[in-house]
Amino acid sequence: MTPDLAPFKDLIKQRCGLLFEGNNETRLAQVLAERIDTLKTRPAEYCLRLQESEAEFQELVNLLTIHETYFFREPEQISLLVERLAPRLLARRGDAAPLRILSAGCSSGEEPYSLAMVLREIHGDAVERLFDIHGGDIDSAVLAKARQGRYSEFSFRGLSPLRRERHFHRDGCHYILKQCIRSQVKFHEINLLSTGFPGVLQDLDIILFRNVSIYFDEATR
């Protein structure tokens, strides 16, 4: 039996802003049914469990989030940042402190790693002094993948063969990011609707928000 989705949709939207309407309702119904069956419980009891258990709510969110991303997915956005915004902000700041960038909804890390690649190509080793790059996502499981820096062909739809050769080591059917790129990005589990954020994510200069904003309604954005 398909559970009444309304209380689950309300809870998820209230807690983390994710909106499940239209085709996304089907995914929500499927994941809820599977989770309820796994736990041998009933819809009302499971809804209560989500309210009481942070761990179970996180498990549900991990199952619901979609990780459709790849390197250099938004090339115009990256060009705007590295060619115009970053030079302007660096010139204004001087050597006072690194430019702090957050990729919100970074999923498995392709967006912040894309930035790290192109910024290193432009600035060389000085990138470590000039930029402080962070990736944040609500899905704890996908962040673990991001930290590994291990990717399949699926992630290379927007990446040139030259960049793949320059920044990755091949490992069988996968490619592993070189350590100099991986070390440039720090990953954090964050809920954008939280009332507080860790100190390391305060006073950011640039936030890339497009990949996660598509899951929010207008008021949440």
Top keywords for this entry?
alpha/beta, 11 helices, 7 strands
Commentary on this structure:
The chain has 221 residues and is an alpha/beta fold. The chain is built from eleven helices and seven strands. The strands form two sheets. A four-stranded parallel beta sheet has the order 6-2-1-7. Strand 4 (168-171) and strand 5 form a beta hairpin. The chain is globular and about 55 Å long. The model has no long low-confidence stretch (mean pLDDT 90).
Oligomer: single chain
Residue share in β-strands: 5-15%
Mean pLDDT metric: 90
Distance between the termini: 34 Å
In short:
α3 packs across α4 (54-64). This protein is α/β, with parallel strands linked by helices and 221 residues long.
Secondary structure layout plus pairing:
Layout: H1 6-16, H2 23-39, H3 43-52, H4 54-64, H5 75-93, E1 99-104, H6 110-123, H7 127-130, E2 131-137, H8 140-148, E3 150-151, H9 161-167, E4 168-171, E5 174-177, H10 179-182, E6 185-189, E7 206-208, H11 210-213
Parallel strand pairs: 1-2, 1-7, 2-6
Antiparallel strand pairs: 3-5, 4-5
Helix pairs in contact: 3-4
